[in-house]
Structure formats: C-alpha cells, structure tokens
Amino acid sequence: MYNVIETGFVYCSFLVVFVGVIFFMVDKLKWKVFDVINPMLLIYLGSAILGSFGLFAQNEDVGTYQNIITVNFLPLMLVFLLIQCDLRKILKMGPKMLLSFFCATFTFMLGFVIAFIIFKNSMGADSWKILGAASGSWIGGSSNMIAAANALGVAEEGLSYAILMGSIGYTVWMSVCLMSVKFGPKFNKWTKCDTSFIDEVTSKLEKENKDNTAPTFVELMILLSVGFGVASFAQIVSKILPTSGILNETMWVVLVASTVSILLGMTKISKLKGSTLVGNVFMYLLLAATGSKANFFGLSEAPVYIMFGLVVVLVHAISFIGLAKLFKLDLFTCEVGSIANIGGVTTAPMIAGVHNPVLIPVGVLMGLLGNIIGTYCALVVTQILHMLA
C-alpha cells in the first residue's frame, strides 16, 4: 500500500469515514473484543498502521490539512468538552466525594513519579514529556492527554506509547474495580465508613432535570459560534503572551481555551445541548490525524511503557486503599473517584451504575471534574518528571 491518498480533502474525508466505521462496529457488532479494546485505541493504532504502510502521501497538500486539524481541533475539542462543566453542580457532591476524587488524582500522580524513578534509565531522553502527557489520560480521560501532548510537542511515536500504556492500565484497573463491587460491604466495614451521605448526594442530583432532546438548529449554531469564538480567542491571545520553557504558544492555547471554557460553564452557556457530542467528534478526528503521522513499527520501547503503566496502577491501588482507610471512604466513592480519573466522564457513570443505577449522575459529575483538572495536573506531573529526568 503506497500513497493511495494524495489530497488533503480526501485525507480528511477518510479520517471521518474511518472514525465512523469504528464506532459503527463497536455499536452494532457487539463483539466481545470491544469490551477489552476501546474505540480510542482502535482509532489511533488503526490510523497509525495505515499511515505506516504508506496510505497517506507525505506531500504539501496532505501536510497542510494535517496541520489544520492538529492546530485548530485541539482548542475546539477543549471548548466543547468543558463548557458543559458547571463547577457549582460539582461542589454539590459533598466533601467525601470530592475527597475521594482528589485522593485518586494524587495517588495516580504519585504512581507516575515513583514509576519514573524506577524506569527512567530504561527510557528515552524525552520520556518525561511522553509520560507527562500520558498522565492526562489517567486524570480525566483521553482529551486531557491529547491536549497535554500537543502542548508539550510530543511526537507521534511518543503518543503511541502513551495511548498503549493508558489503555492497558485502564483495562486492568477497570477489571479489578468491577470484580471488587461484590466486596463493598466488607470493604465498608473495614474502613468504618458512613454511607448515609451517598443518599443525600443522590437526592440532590435527582432534583436536577435532564433534557436529553437533540439540539435545534439555532442551538447548534449558537454552540458552534461559542466554540469557534473561544478557540479563535485562545489562539489570538496565545501569540501575545510570553513564552518560557514548556510554556510555549500551544500551551497558552490549551490554558486559555480551558480556563475560558470552565468560566463559561458557570453561565447559561453550559445548558447548550450537544456540546459533548461535538467535542467528541473533534477529539476522535484529532486522534486519528495524529495517529496517521505515527510510525507504528517504531515502538521498540513498548514493553517498558506497559510495565510503567502497571506500576502506576499498583502504586495507585496500594496508596488509595490506605487513604480510604484513613479517611473512612466507602467502596462506591473510591471506585467512582478512581475511574473518574483514569476513565473520565465516559466510564465513571458505568462503574457508578454497577453499584446502583440511581447513582449514575454522580459518576457523570465526577468524570466532568476530571475533564476540568486533567490537563492542569498533567502539566504539573510533566514539570516534576522533568526535574527528575
């Protein structure tokens, strides 16, 4: 296979069709393999394999479109995924839910630091960048990793390692959490926790009316206007802000777009329908475009990164259980807080629903909190790893 796609428009069209086919297969075919391998991994590795075999020509036209997607879809993704996050609603979850979430965040960050100390001599010189970006997917989900990777200038091969490590780590930990649900009463007895607050949180969230109807044409146009407006504002402002070290122009785009979107999330704009759907479109197309530039056959350090991820999971598990005992946290709170970090808003509701379907809204809000802080935490981890390198 060599240079089948030679024009930018056909390249973009292929990415859209490719992502659509992946999600069609996941949704309609119901193969068990899709329970283990998530769409994100299929999209990235699939486009990387096709790119490695030379499906996409490395000419000016294709390169221009790749650059347009990489530069512009990043802030658009952030805006659409973050304007739905109303911090005031998240604060209603109560102190124990928030404590659980931030304990999970801290232990995942600790896991990255400890694993880096163990493996840094076996990894490349720029591994601190790759791992710093990877930590974003362990604190809120893949959108944070993509944002951090672009801000840090992580190469396509490095992003391959990050995605592979995150997917395996997530699969292992999610499996452990699902299997441990039945041990909830014993765990709660061991930690001596009080679970009455969960009922209070649930009753508060059930009072929030949810409108699941599709957005109207006017609502969709307003949503797009906000998204493109904020993304453009972030790009304009980033060009006049000072740069230093890892705080480059792309980093400013990420920080400005994220911060403005979070502020807008506390206004009526957060009620606009369809923001998550639109944000996911940009996220998966950005992921596919990034993968198409990767060299799948150059992943010589994959075993080290996989071991790194497993050590992170182990450190998180041990330290988080210790904190659960210290703060008297129940298993539901711990598992939702943990999965809200490593899986984000797409999977936190799943683990919440396994415990009790009524508590799914708690998982959604915990996942949204991960979306909000993930990119910032990833940059903190990056700075720590850089100092340790």
UniProtKB/TrEMBL annotation:
<feature type="transmembrane region" description="Helical">
    <location>
        <begin position="217"/>
        <end position="238"/>
    </location>
</feature>
<keyword id="KW-1133">Transmembrane helix</keyword>
<dbReference type="InterPro" id="IPR008537">
    <property type="entry name" value="DUF819"/>
</dbReference>
<feature type="transmembrane region" description="Helical">
    <location>
        <begin position="97"/>
        <end position="119"/>
    </location>
</feature>
<keyword id="KW-0472">Membrane</keyword>
<feature type="transmembrane region" description="Helical">
    <location>
        <begin position="159"/>
        <end position="181"/>
    </location>
</feature>
<feature type="transmembrane region" description="Helical">
    <location>
        <begin position="6"/>
        <end position="26"/>
    </location>
</feature>
<feature type="transmembrane region" description="Helical">
    <location>
        <begin position="33"/>
        <end position="56"/>
    </location>
</feature>
<feature type="transmembrane region" description="Helical">
    <location>
        <begin position="68"/>
        <end position="85"/>
    </location>
</feature>
<keyword id="KW-0812">Transmembrane</keyword>
<feature type="transmembrane region" description="Helical">
    <location>
        <begin position="305"/>
        <end position="324"/>
    </location>
</feature>
<feature type="transmembrane region" description="Helical">
    <location>
        <begin position="358"/>
        <end position="381"/>
    </location>
</feature>
<feature type="transmembrane region" description="Helical">
    <location>
        <begin position="331"/>
        <end position="352"/>
    </location>
</feature>
<protein>
    <submittedName>
        <fullName>Membrane protein</fullName>
    </submittedName>
</protein>
<dbReference type="Pfam" id="PF05684">
    <property type="entry name" value="DUF819"/>
</dbReference>
<feature type="transmembrane region" description="Helical">
    <location>
        <begin position="250"/>
        <end position="269"/>
    </location>
</feature>
<feature type="transmembrane region" description="Helical">
    <location>
        <begin position="281"/>
        <end position="299"/>
    </location>
</feature>
